[in-house]
Design brief:
Two copies of one chain form a homodimer.
Chain A (H helix, E strand, L loop, with lengths): L2 E3 L6 E5 L3 H9 L6 E6 L3 E3 L4 H5 L9 E3 H4 L6 E5 L2 E5 L4 E4 L2 E4 L2 E4 L3 E3 L5 H6 L6 H17 L6 H8 E5 L3 H21 L9 E5 L11 H13 L3 E3 L4 E4 L3 E4 L4 E3 L2 E4 L3 E3 L10 E2 L3 E3 L12 E3 L4 E2 L13 H19 L14 E6 L2 E6 L2 E5 H14 L3 H17 L26
Parallel strand pairs in A: 1-9, 2-3, 2-10, 3-6, 10-22, 12-13, 12-18, 13-14, 21-23
Antiparallel strand pairs in A: 4-5, 7-8, 8-9, 11-19, 15-16, 16-17, 20-21, 24-25, 25-26
Helix pairs in contact in A: 1-9
């Protein structure tokens, strides 16, 4: 489709990406006399903090996603298009997309981040990322397919590959994923797979630095490690991955783990577009922005959230790649864009730290709210409450709540279905001959 | 995987298919001193009567599916395997599957039915079936992708293709699907697609015979047609499909409809296995069985539910292809198999007709309970209650109930997400360049 979307007489703000930042920005422009164009490659917003629960059979994919058209229902100045942005032509103020070229006055890159394999192609080819709903569903299918295959495979090395689950990266996603798989083992597998010797199932969490949850308090770090060990997770800190060929994971210190399921949560990189000032691309493939999120070397192109790096004295590596950063930047940018259009002074961004939290499992979470730190069951309820409230849409809140309450009392997971089997190119044959 | 699963000293009953009939049979054998082996190509049971709600964005796929392992939790005499049955070797009492060969004493074919295109390959290639969860999800994606594509395509013939939705077959599935798409148009599209002229969206229901719901009372037939027309569905009875090339649907009388979305619910055929007595295969590709569901020409192979045809004076075409038939046959076969093993007399099957019902939309359903017939809002609540109660699993009942209550008050559908885009081989390019 090679259409052209020329501007009208109104100022057109094009937002690429319907994540936390893009949505907040678009909504805050609701009553302004501008034309807002929101683009996303999906027709839905993904609540990324709960992807790991989709991957481990705790939640339906549909309950952590929300139709973008519905979010902007009634916003008359907004047009939404499902499309992928390809390249910026900054001198012509044109964005190239898969549905054609779109003119803009202001362009906001809110594309978020993808998994960072740090250039290790072999690992990228074989490890499972978990940054989108299809990726989370693939991981769910793979875990369940492995368990089914382990019912009929007797070769001990192949069984090891099927029943060792390795999570790489001890940030919140890694900790939460490892904990969720450990709970799956503890509460579900013993009932579902009576033939399986549960001692054969091992869950590893591998982290390069000396501690888990690097961005949290020492208290939270220690407690989360303790929680994981209580659940039977083998926590390996100070361990770095050297190679992974889909069957054997090799660590820098020479250790090897047989595993066909390596979940990669060791880092993210910005999902930048082509055509932007290349000198603005800094560590983590992020776009260096000034204090109002304008990209270095551009006049009318901005970046917010995970794809941006606003480097300040307080944040020499940029702000944390979390939802509150994106939301706060989106909100402020709406105001600043309006001020720029009206020749008014702009306000520099100031990050309001909302704290950090991570859940390891049932009754086990860690919460840092500035000086207030707590762990355990109350932290777990806090975590659930905050995540429920942040989910977009009443139906989603309700369905997730129902699922959580149900799981709490039944010790079960509702959605352990292999709806679309996942086949690795390499070794699908050895796993499950045919499932359709 | 070429394993062999030899029998132990116990009698082994192998059941192929975890649908309504297979589950009932396996459960009823729980306390018997036999070895039960349940095989299914999926790891879940599908509640087929609600597939159309998954396809039209009303329900999550996960809420109408239930893990088969969980259904048989604690049933010590049962082994479950995810595999596809390929071929029977009746003289050797061996079943060939994708995971190897399985010995049996008694084999029960409970494989259900698939869409019947009556040998029309071109239609089969282009029309959308709706007999499994992946198929229902593909249809959901296609409907939503078409609506997105219609936002940017201006060519009138292409727009017609995108915005004409054709359902072929006026049985319960066809009636329910056409009604659900009509409600999607009425309640959701006007909010989600403010740029779209709703008059361009047309829903056709095509039925070969003079009336809809052929198996129901005249009262129900008339009322369902009235309900559909109220919702704006173009009902075409006495119309037969001649050809469909993915773009133009041609009827026998010469009429043509431009449509890229033709949903096929015009008939089913039994999903028979190879290696069985071919003379037992009767109309609709079903297996002719005697009064205890034993397949003609076999001593120890049985068929129950949709894949079987028990022809009696009262049912010259076999029993209705509905859940109660399968459940009742599964239940009785459990008893009869036990009696056969113990040289006791068997009981012939007697169908208990539970009536029929179909829903057209909000407050609009038709119910026939023998002589008691009613339509409208009370019928609709009856339909919802019966379907809720028949759903397997408390969590599923709860989540579906929450979704229905929420939809009732909000006039909305929760799950209109294109999670896995569907690409027809033929004309994907003209629709949406890339969605991933």
């Amino acid at each position: 489709m090679d259409q052209h979307f020329p501007k009208s007489t109104k100022t057109r703000i094009v937002i690429v990406g319907g994540g936390f930042g893009g949505i907040e920005l678009a909504k805050k422009l609701k009553d302004k006399d501008v034309e807002v164009m929101m683009l996303d490659k999906h027709n839905y917003h993904t609540f990324q903090p709960l992807l790991y629960q989709v991957a481990t059979g705790g939640l339906e994919a549909d309950s952590i996603a929300f139709p973008l058209r519905k979010i902007f229902k009634g916003q008359k100045n907004l047009t939404f298009r499902v499309t992928e942005a390809l390249r910026v032509q900054p001198f012509e103020n044109i964005l190239e997309t898969t549905i054609g070229t779109i003119e803009y006055d202001h362009l906001v890159i809110a594309t978020g981040s993808t998994s960072n394999f740090f250039g290790q192609n072999e690992i990228e080819e074989h490890a499972m990322p978990m940054k989108s709903i299809p990726e989370a569903l693939n991981l769910r299918s793979l875990i369940l397919q492995n368990l089914e295959a382990a019912q009929i495979i007797t070769d001990p090395i192949l069984r090891d590959e099927l029943l060792n689950f390795v999570v790489v990266g001890g940030g919140p996603t890694g900790v939460e994923t490892a904990g969720a798989i450990a709970e799956l083992k503890k509460h579900v597998l013993k009932n579902d797979y009576p033939e399986l010797n549960l001692d054969e199932v091992s869950i590893y969490l591998i982290e390069g630095s000396p501690e888990l949850l690097g961005n949290m308090s020492v208290q939270a770090q220690r407690k989360s490690e303790e929680f994981l060990k209580e659940l039977g997770v083998i926590v390996m800190t100070n361990s770095r991955v050297k190679a992974y060929d889909g069957k054997v994971l090799s660590l820098l210190d020479g250790q090897q783990i047989n595993s066909s399921t390596v979940i990669w949560s060791a880092g993210v990189k910005g999902a930048v577009l082509e055509g932007l000032n290349t000198t603005a691309i800094v560590r983590g493939n992020r776009l260096k922005v000034n204090e109002i999120n304008r990209i270095d070397g551009h006049d009318n192109i901005y970046a917010i959230g995970d794809v941006s790096a606003m480097i300040t004295e307080e944040f020499p590596n940029g702000h944390p790649g979390v939802a509150p950063t994106a939301i706060q930047q989106g909100k402020l940018l709406a105001k600043n864009l309006w001020n720029i259009m009206n020749n008014l002074p702009t306000t520099p961004f100031k990050y309001f730290d909302k704290g950090a939290m991570a859940t390891v499992g049932r009754n086990r979470a860690v919460v840092d709210l500035h000086k207030i730190r707590f762990q355990g069951i109350f932290a777990w309820f806090t975590w659930m409450f905050v995540h429920l409230m942040t989910l977009v849409g009443f139906r989603n809140k309700l369905v997730v709540f129902v699922n959580w309450v149900w799981s709490y009392f039944s010790y079960d997971r509702g959605t352990r279905l292999i709806i679309r089997p996942y086949f690795k190119e390499s070794n699908d044959e050895s796993k499950l001959d045919k499932v359709s």
